[in-house]
Amino acid sequence: MSAYRSSERTRPLLSPAEAAELLSSWGLDVSTRSLQEWRSTGRGPAYLKIGNQIRYHRGKLSTWIEAHEVEPTKRKRGRRNG
After folding, report:
1. pLDDT digits 0-9 by tens, 18-68
2. Which DSSP string do the residues of 18-79 spell out, in sequence order?
3. The whole model's pTM is what?
4. What are phi and psi of 54, to 5 degrees?
């Protein structure tokens, strides 16, 4: 692997395409279109807008995923509806 490719992996700021690729590599079905839609509706991971450039911080993507973690709860025993 070249030094350039190695440094590409450690860059903290990612383009929308790179962010979508990273999220997809983590098992999420995320496209650049999804990221664009989420930005326009105020959802999704935090991002930076510098001029006309959109960038995602690698650490913020991880934090965003962790914020969606749901702890399983014990089901109450009893009657079922239906």
Report:
1. 999 999 999 999 999 999 999 999 999 999 999 999 999 999 999 999 999
2. HHHHHHHHTT----HHHHHHHHHHT-SS--EEETTEEEEEHHHHHHHHHHT-----PPPPSP
3. 0.73
4. -105, 130
